[in-house]
Amino acid sequence: MRFLGGLTLLIAISTISSTANAQWMYPGGYGGYGMSKWGADPGAGYMAGLGSFARSQGVYQLEKAKADAINADTMIKWNKALRARQQVLRAEKQKEAASEEARREARLRETLLIDGTTLNDVLYQILDVDPAVAKTGRSKTPLSPAAIREIPFEWDSEAISLCLDQMTGQGSLPDALMAPKFAEERDALHAAVAPALSEDAKGNVSPATIKRIDEAVSHFRSEFLKKSSEFEPGYQDGLDFFTTLASLSRLLGDPSMKEFLAKLNDAEPRTVGDLISFMHSHNLKFGPATSERQIEIYRSLLPLLKAIRDEAGGAVAAAATEGDRSGQDLISSARQTFKGMNWDQLEAHARAR
User: Fold this and answer.
1) Is the entire prediction scored with pTM above 0.85?
2) Residue 224 falls inside a structural domain
């Protein structure tokens, strides 16, 4: 009986203890984390696992969203800073390039001024609008005789050299001069003219080359007169051809220009109009300046010539001028202009050089 009574009390105590746990204690989860009832209720354990996964997934996504927000903001700031810096560098590079271009343009302007190109361009514009220098030659802008003497003039004869070369080329002579009996004279004439092109490209045609051209033209004319009759077809064309060549060769260089410069009196006032007239009458151009004094004269002269050009309307006329690219216009004009020249006068001029 005592044994049965003790067993009954033990069972009652166990029952009370179990009831108390059910009311106040959560069943132990896996590893002590939450209520899972592992092994007791498979369905409850499964649901508990899903909940735990969902919570952890939500935390991950929240943290990732924060990280993404931080990264995007950082990248926006980085990109803005990068673009701003790139823009500054591009602006500095463009500014440097513009400065270098300005320096190149300044150097080019200086080079073109020193070698005479700029002054020659302005002079050509003046002569285009005033071919006879009737108006511009009267300009009263003062210019010292000493400055005129120091200008490194060159004969502007490249177009003339080329004209001579074209007129004496194969098949370019008048029919009366193309007869086989004049083959030797034709060859000698072309050989005399050929060096003028290369010499003129470098500066002036040498006096020796001009003399050979004069002699070749004169000899050819003498042989033509001996071997031809004035009644033959093309006889006058042949004579006109020789006077045209002789006239053109006289324009390759005129020593009287240097004589005129030597006679300039410092006490006699001179003007820019005198300079233009002088260069026009002697077919001169501005050569390269080779000293600081000549460069200084060119710099002072440029605005004076521009003012005369603008007053005469030369800048507008130059823009509309279309050049003779083939050279045939110049050849035709030379034949019409010089065919009536007196041969004896041309010979006298050649001897005086």
Assistant:
1) no
2) yes
Residue 242 half-sphere exposure, CB side, CA atoms within 13 Å?
A: 26
Torsion-angle region of 65 (φ positive above 0: left; ψ -120 to 50: alpha; else: beta):
alpha
Integer Cα distance of 120 and 112 in angstroms: 10
Q: Which range marks the domain in which residue 168 is found?
A: 114-352
Question: Which of 324, 274, 314 has the alpha carbon at shortest distance from 139?
Answer: 274
Residue 35 falls within a domain, yes or no?
A: no
Beta-carbon contacts of 251 under 8 Å, excluding residues fewer than 6 positions away, are: 155, 157, 160, 283
- Per the structure, the count of domains in the chain is 1
User: Would residue 308 count as lying in a domain?
Assistant: yes
Q: Convert the pLDDT of each residue in 121-134 to its tens digit.
A: 999 999 999 999 99
Per-residue pLDDT of 72-95, as tens digits, reads: 777 778 778 878 888 888 888 888
